[in-house]
Amino acid sequence: MAVTSEELGTQTIKKLLLKQAVPASVGILFMSLNILIDTIFVGQWIGSLAIAAVTVVMPISFLVSSLGMAIGVGGSSVLSRALGAKDQDKALFTFGNQIMMTLLLSSFFVAVGLFFEEEMLRLFGAEGTIMAPAKEFFVPILISAPFLALCMMGNSVIRAEGKAKFAMFAMIVPAFANIIFDIIFIKYLNLGMAGAAYATAISYFLCFLFVLWFFVYKSELRLQLKHFGFRIPIVSEITKLSFVTFARQGVVSILAIILNHILYKHGGEHSIAVYGIISRMLMFALFPVLGITQGFIPIAGYNYGAGNHHRVKETIQVSIKYAAIFATVIFVFILTFAESIVAIFTTDPIVIAETPNALRWVFAASPIIAVQLIGAAYFQAAGLAKQALFLTLSKQGFFLIPLVLILPYFFGIFGVWISFPIADVLSTIITAYFLRRATNIEFKKDPDGIL
Question: What is the pLDDT of residues 113-123, one digit of tens each?
């Protein structure tokens, strides 16, 4: 059963987290399965060079769609606190402004991408023989990116309403569609990279149609034309919090640019294919941890807005506990079955030989990442934009990028892989410090403290 916004402040935290996190986890599972199976089909039916091309193009698409994700997550923090404070008018204007901001910004970035197509592909690492398949994949993916941006924005709003199951279905629909159209376009129609691009683009559009259907027929938020007019204070508040998510994705895109160039320099096209497999596994394997993080945000945001600090405190504790358990199980699984996992993606002997150990190193610190993810999410849910931005950027921006730039000159390709667990450990230590300090101050009236 779906959770109403009022129940976010009354039901037990464990029950709420279960209702919010399970659908979010399942949704992320299907979305990551979509990307995972897409990579398997591309690798098996087109070749390892095609995996490298997808690895180059998808960060560009995600950069555009991350505008919607950022506006969705940032705006939903505003929306959740407005619902918690019983301010329905502000909630409606927030949603209307989210839609307009997503449409305008994503369309602008698509236009820029189409105009500077080759320059952008080279920037993101389309070097040598990767350029040709990357070009074939790029245009359909970029044109469909605004639909994905609207889906990502809408998905966050759906969760903010407490309708986590509908948010889950919004991610399941494109996953199934992409897999079906991949089989048709790549295997049976033999359209190669273009077929993979068409399948993905169609799946984005079908996701958009599902989200549109939800807001027309199922949502508590009944928009009128006036709600689409920009309200500067609301736009400002959304922007401050959205900047956290967009800055994170921006840093991820910068990381992708640096990684692709460093990998190509030290290992050629095969090393980019290796990272293509690892990056898919990072999203796929960690789906329950990411689901708990997404489920945490509306619960924490609503109760923070309602002044229920003891419930926020319990939400932090329970979320970290269960996310850490899942992350540890995932680490053991990766450690044990790395070779079998890699063999699913490709028959290329070089990629099969290099990927398993790289995969193990990248996941080496995963048991502790729950603190970093939940900690950063708390500051965003509470509307504390500066702290959220700092902690969100800590892993990729402050640690991983410098490590990736430095360590390969001493350790070669191995330096890239060990950069990931080192960055995880350092960012987790910093997040734990800030989370403990901030919550002790915020909840100092609670006699039993925090964490």
Answer: 899 999 989 98
